[in-house]
Amino acid sequence: MKQGVQVIVPGSTANLGPGFDTVGMAFELYTKIRMEVSDEPKVVLYGDDLKGLPTDRSNLVYKMAEYLFEKAGLTLPPLRIQMRSDIPLTRGLGSSAAAIVGGLVAANYLAEEPFSKDEIFQMASHIEGHPDNVGASLFGGIVVAVMEEEKVPYIKIEPKSSLKALAVIPDFMLSTEKARGVLPEKYSRKDTVFTLSHAGLLIASLASGRYDMLNTAMQDRVHQPYRTALVPGMGTLLDKAHEYGALGTALSGAGPTIISFLEGNDERLKQFFVDTLLQNGIGSTTMSLMPDLHGARISEDIDTPF
Ligand SMILES: Nc1ncnc2c1ncn2[C@@H]1O[C@H](COP(=O)(O)OP(=O)(O)OP(=O)(O)O)[C@@H](O)[C@H]1O
Ligand SMILES: N[C@@H](CCO)C(=O)O
User: Fold this and answer.
1) Within the chain, which residue ranges are assigned CATH 3.30.70.890?
2) Bond into 10 cis (ω within 30)
3) Nearest ligand by distance to the CA of 125
4) Digits of tens for pLDDT over the chain (306 positions)?
5) Is 95 in the pocket of ligand 1 (CB under 6 A)?
6) Is ligand 2 within 6 A of the CB of residue 220?
7) Contacts (Cβ under 8 Å, ≥6 apart) of 116
8) Of the candidates 162, 172, 286, 287, which lies 20 to 30 Å from 28 by C-alpha distance?
């Protein structure tokens, strides 16, 4: 067994409008995890972003190591896990997916790689319940995936180097569980066809680099209309961001972050985002984001200070 490893995992946006539970895109925004065999179990958290998370075996990353070792039929030794993250927690930028992918990838390395990357993807998708964020975190770029019983077939698309994003992150958390709880069980044929056809156009637009189509393509009727009530100002942001230079805009994952894609300067859009949320009584911060093209990466360097 290997004695230690460091893994860097990108955060991501999921859905991009109509690609609900299907499409994810990774960003240069990272969770860093160092996992080492130790005398006793311990999780050490650095920085403000991870404040409040468990520092014992109940931490999600620790649980992923336990899960992977059990699946491999191995006994997990006590681990010391150190972690820091730039991904805001519970805001729709894939923090849980990055933790799941990071824990599995690090533990797989310690266990001498009993599982392939595709098998890790399957595990991560089933644990998270959908493949969109975990696919982007694991593989980087834009990942389109479908979840079947046994397999999770996917295709990775590389965005053009001109494509970037602007995220506005409201000053409140919204758990994925709560944001999924407001969705209906059934949809009309009209809303299903609307969303299917826009999802098709979204993938064609991303695969061909026809980003001029994104504003039309990123509309959906499966989740955003039901989640609007959870994020004051969201309706205005989705309707009007195009007028401030956005190519297309959506709720990021389960929210509350809203994300726009763009190719030019984002100053006007930033102001519009912050002002609109403020008018709705919500403070926020913005992040200019570049796509991450590589996904989770392993480093054997566990000697430099964390
Ligand atoms: N680095 C981490 N270590 C341990 N647990 C984490 C870590 N990051 C996230 N989590 C867990 O995941 C929860 C957030 O998951 P949730 O799915 O609600 O939000 P998200 O992943 O940030 O957003 P979204 O899925 O919409 O992109 C946190 O409350 C915490 O329990
Ligand atoms: N596809 C998921 C992403 C958040 O985990 C959702 O929108 O609920």
Assistant:
1) 164-289
2) no
3) 2
4) 999 999 999 999 999 999 999 999 999 999 999 999 999 999 999 998 899 999 999 999 999 999 999 999 999 999 999 999 999 999 999 999 999 999 999 999 999 999 999 999 999 999 999 999 999 999 999 999 999 988 999 999 999 999 999 999 999 999 999 999 999 999 999 999 999 999 999 999 999 999 999 999 999 999 999 999 999 999 999 999 999 999 999 999 999 999 999 999 999 999 999 999 999 999 999 999 999 999 999 998 888 888
5) yes
6) no
7) none
8) 172
Q: Is the CB of 257 under 6 A from ligand 1?
A: no
Which DSSP helix (H) or strand (E) runs through 204? helix 189-208
* Closest Cα to atom 12 of ligand 1: 96
CATH architecture of the domain with residue range 164-289: 2-Layer Sandwich (3.30)
The model scores a pTM over 0.80: yes
Can you tell me which atom of ligand 1 is nearest the CA of 12? 27
- Tokens standing for residue 21: 């539970």
- pLDDT tens digits for 167-201? 999 999 999 999 999 999 999 999 999 999 999 99
**Hey, how many other C-beta atoms are within 10 angstroms of the C-beta on 187?**
14
Using only the alpha carbons of the chain, give its radius of gyration: 19
| ipTM of the complex model | 0.98
Q: Which of 49, 79, 90, 128 to mutate to test the pocket of ligand 1 (most atoms within 8 A of CB)?
A: 90
Per-residue pLDDT reduced to its tens digit, 233-275: 999 999 999 999 999 999 999 999 999 999 999 999 999 999 9
| Pairwise CA distance, residues 277 & 214, whole Å | 23
The answer to whether the CB of 13 falls within 8 A of the CB of 253 is: yes
Q: Which residue has 């009007």 as its token pair?
A: 240
Residue numbering of the annotated binding site? 88-98
Does the beta carbon of 133 lie inside 6 Å of ligand 1?
A: yes
Architecture of domain 4-158+292-299: 2-Layer Sandwich (3.30)
